[in-house]
Structures are given as structure tokens and as C-alpha cells.
Amino acid sequence: MPSHGGAALYSKVGHMKFRGLLVAAVAVFGLALMMDSTIQGNDKKEDKKDPVSIKVVMQKAMKGGLCGKVASGKASEAERKQLASLFADLAANKCPKGEADDWKTRTEALAKASAALAKEDNADNRAALKKAADCKGCHSTHK
Hey, where are the domains in the chain? Predict the structure, then answer.
């Protein structure tokens, strides 16, 4: 009996086992990638972000001077778009105090005026923003 015949058989079977393990590892890795993309894909379908808080909007838009800069016509297009985004988030927030209908009317006026300015910077749109940005009127009922 040749002693090297068994070694050749083991060598052939050993390589087949190694290939099988390699194929299985690639298949498991592929399955893990597919599962991960499925999980991430579901998140994108439900990509509803929470609106920026009222406090943050007030700090950036009003106290930070962004609204005044946009209303004066000195803001860049990016700043006008940022303000429109902030006021859209403000309108998406719930009324913290006072009548919800008044809150909705006031915040939607701000959102509409700032969105118009984001599209076209002109005197009429700036006047609409100045009118909508009535700090005392809003704070006296909603703060």
C-alpha cells in the first residue's frame, strides 16, 4: 500500500473543504450586506425628521439676526433658504401656549413669506416678511 495515496486524497478533500468554507463565508457576508441595506432602506422610507425646536429657531432666526438680515435685503441666497427652512420647522412645531389656530396663522405667514423670499428677493416679499415677523404679537400670546 502506498502511503502517499492517502495524503493525495486528503490534500484534494482539504482543498474542497477550504473552498466550501470560503464560499460559505462570502455567502454569509453577502447576506449580511443585504440585510443591512434592507434595514437602512426602511429608515429612508420613514425619513420624517423632527422639526427644529422653537427655541433653536428663535435663537438662529430672530436673536441671531438672520430674519432681520433677510428682511433688509442683505442676505445671501443660502441665508434666505436657511431662514425659510427654519420658519417651515417653526410652523411644524406644536403651539406651546395659547390658541393653536393663531399659532398656525402666524407661523404659516412667516413660513410663506420666507419661502417667497428664498425664491425671489424683492421689496414686496421683504415687506411681507417684516409684517409676519411680529415678535411682540406672537410672544404675548404664545410664550
Answer: 1-48, 54-142
